[in-house]
Amino acid sequence: LELYKKQNGRCQITKHKLENKVDLKQRTDNIWNISILIKDETKSLIKREDIYLVCNLISSTKQLYNLNEHDLKEIYEKVSL
Protein backbone atom coordinates (compact mmCIF):
# COMPACT_ATOMS: atom_id res chain seq x y z
CA LEU A 1 0.00 0.00 0.00
CA GLU A 2 2.90 2.31 0.80
CA LEU A 3 4.41 1.74 -2.65
CA TYR A 4 1.00 2.17 -4.30
CA LYS A 5 0.63 5.55 -2.63
CA LYS A 6 4.20 6.54 -3.48
CA GLN A 7 3.47 5.81 -7.16
CA ASN A 8 0.13 7.70 -6.93
CA GLY A 9 -1.75 4.54 -7.90
CA ARG A 10 -0.06 4.50 -11.30
CA CYS A 11 2.12 2.05 -13.19
CA GLN A 12 5.79 2.91 -12.67
CA ILE A 13 6.59 2.48 -16.36
CA THR A 14 3.50 3.70 -18.24
CA LYS A 15 1.83 5.91 -15.61
CA HIS A 16 -1.49 4.18 -16.42
CA LYS A 17 -3.96 4.09 -13.52
CA LEU A 18 -3.62 0.74 -11.75
CA GLU A 19 -6.75 -1.32 -11.14
CA ASN A 20 -7.73 -4.23 -8.95
CA LYS A 21 -10.67 -5.80 -10.76
CA VAL A 22 -11.91 -9.34 -10.31
CA ASP A 23 -14.78 -10.76 -12.35
CA LEU A 24 -17.55 -13.08 -11.17
CA LYS A 25 -15.35 -16.14 -11.68
CA GLN A 26 -12.59 -14.56 -9.54
CA ARG A 27 -10.31 -14.05 -12.52
CA THR A 28 -7.75 -11.32 -12.01
CA ASP A 29 -6.21 -11.21 -15.48
CA ASN A 30 -7.32 -7.67 -16.33
CA ILE A 31 -4.36 -6.08 -18.18
CA TRP A 32 -4.59 -2.94 -16.00
CA ASN A 33 -4.55 -4.80 -12.66
CA ILE A 34 -1.66 -4.26 -10.26
CA SER A 35 1.38 -6.46 -10.67
CA ILE A 36 4.74 -6.48 -8.88
CA LEU A 37 7.87 -6.13 -10.98
CA ILE A 38 11.31 -6.92 -9.59
CA LYS A 39 13.90 -4.46 -10.89
CA ASP A 40 16.77 -6.96 -10.94
CA GLU A 41 15.79 -10.62 -10.87
CA THR A 42 19.39 -11.76 -10.58
CA LYS A 43 19.55 -10.74 -6.92
CA SER A 44 19.22 -13.53 -4.39
CA LEU A 45 17.63 -11.24 -1.79
CA ILE A 46 14.79 -8.91 -2.81
CA LYS A 47 14.25 -5.79 -0.69
CA ARG A 48 11.39 -3.29 -0.76
CA GLU A 49 13.39 -0.86 -2.91
CA ASP A 50 13.97 -3.63 -5.48
CA ILE A 51 10.35 -3.73 -6.62
CA TYR A 52 7.77 -1.45 -8.17
CA LEU A 53 4.17 -1.71 -9.18
CA VAL A 54 3.18 -1.98 -12.81
CA CYS A 55 0.07 -2.97 -14.72
CA ASN A 56 -0.38 -6.65 -15.54
CA LEU A 57 0.15 -5.90 -19.25
CA ILE A 58 3.67 -4.63 -18.57
CA SER A 59 4.57 -7.42 -16.17
CA SER A 60 3.33 -10.17 -18.50
CA THR A 61 4.98 -8.65 -21.56
CA LYS A 62 8.29 -8.24 -19.75
CA GLN A 63 8.21 -11.85 -18.57
CA LEU A 64 7.32 -13.23 -22.00
CA TYR A 65 9.65 -11.13 -24.14
CA ASN A 66 12.26 -9.72 -21.70
CA LEU A 67 11.91 -6.19 -23.09
CA ASN A 68 13.46 -3.02 -21.72
CA GLU A 69 11.37 -0.14 -20.36
CA HIS A 70 11.49 1.82 -23.63
CA ASP A 71 10.09 -1.11 -25.61
CA LEU A 72 7.45 -1.75 -22.95
CA LYS A 73 6.31 1.87 -23.19
CA GLU A 74 6.02 1.56 -26.99
CA ILE A 75 3.81 -1.52 -26.65
CA TYR A 76 1.66 0.25 -24.06
CA GLU A 77 1.18 3.23 -26.37
CA LYS A 78 -0.02 0.94 -29.16
CA VAL A 79 -2.41 -1.01 -26.92
CA SER A 80 -3.87 1.94 -25.03
CA LEU A 81 -5.05 3.88 -28.10
Strand content: 5-15%
Report the total helices: 3
| C-alpha geometry | globular
Structural class by SSE content: alpha+beta
Q: What's the gyration radius in Å?
A: 13 Å
Termini, distance in Å? 29 Å
SSE arrangement, N to C: HEEHH
Strand tally, please?
Answer: 2
What does this structure look like?
The chain has 81 residues and is an alpha+beta fold. It is built from three helices and two strands. It has helices at 2-6, 56-65, 69-79; strands at 34-38, 51-55. Strands 1-2 form a two-stranded antiparallel ribbon. The termini are far apart.
Condensed summary:
With 81 residues, the protein is α+β, with helices and mostly antiparallel strands.
List keywords for this structure.
single chain; 81 residues; alpha+beta; two-stranded antiparallel sheet; 3 helices; 32% helix; globular
Topology:
Blueprint: H1 2-6, E1 34-38, E2 51-55, H2 56-65, H3 69-79
Antiparallel strand pairs: 1-2
